[in-house]
Amino acid sequence: MEIAAAALLAVLAALVLPRVAELFVLINATVFVSMAILALSLALIWGFGGILCFGQTAFFGLGGYAYAVAALNLGDSAYAVPIALAVPALAALALGYFMFYGRISDVYIGAITLTVSLILFNFANSTAGDQWHIGEAPLGGFNGIPSTPQLNVPGDPDATLSPQAIFVVAVLCLAACYVLAKLVLASRFGRIVVAIRENEVRAELLGHDARRYKLGIFTLGGLIGGLAGILFANCVFVSPTMFSLFYSGQVIIWVMVGGVGTLFGPILGAMLLQGLTTWAGTLPGINPNAILGVILMLAVLLLPTGLLPGATALLGRLRRRTAP
Amino acid sequence: MTALLEARDVVMRFGGVAAVDGVQFAVDQGELRGLIGPNGAGKSTLFKCLTGQLRPTAGRILLRGQDITGLPSFAIARLGVGIKTQVPSLFDGLSVREGIMIALRRQHGERAARGLAGAALERLGIADLADRMVGLLAHGQRQLVELAMVVAPEPDLILLDEPTAGMSLEETRRAAEVIRDLNRHHTIVVVEHDMQFIRSIARTVTVLHQGRVLVEDEVSRVLSDPRVRDVYLGRQVAA
Question: What is the CATH code of the structural domain delimited by B1-80+155-239?
Answer without folding.
Answer: 3.40.50.300
